[in-house]
Amino acid sequence: GIVLVAINPYEQLPIYEQDVIYAYSGQNMGDMDPHIFAVAEEAYKQMARDEKNQSIIVSGESGAGKTVSAKYAMRFFATVGGSASETNIEAKVLASSPIMEAIGNAKTTRNDNSSRFGKYIQIGFDKRYHIIGANMRTYLLEKSRVVFQAEDERNYHIFYQLCASASLPEFKELGLSK
Fold it and tell me: Is 62 marked as binding a ligand?
């Protein structure tokens, strides 16, 4: 398959704007510089041409920009599929509650708020290749973090939030004393 190596610049760059999406839309892989939009366009084209499901695997270390890359791919699909103005698809799919973040995020040596969840995102398209729905499944990557943390790392945020709340009257109702 196609492999794209990307880095997280930790700032917004003009290489992810709407005009860049349109520049990559309809292009063949290799005709333009390597880009997340080139990968997304190839998957979109193959989905339309072969009428088969496609997958994009975004992998990397903590803080590498996996979630950001997934957002850009979804923005590409929403734009070329004609649904960008109607729905802010990447915001809707990736919206997660503060409770989920507290349960699944922890401090690592590279990132103070690193998601320890893996994410599997499915995007549904209609016969005209417009996005009609999406869902995200999450799975906990590090069950061992509950009982052991590497040096300079922390347990899940929820552990410290519960400890800090132990003296509140509401805490007694949770049955988590001692």
Answer: yes
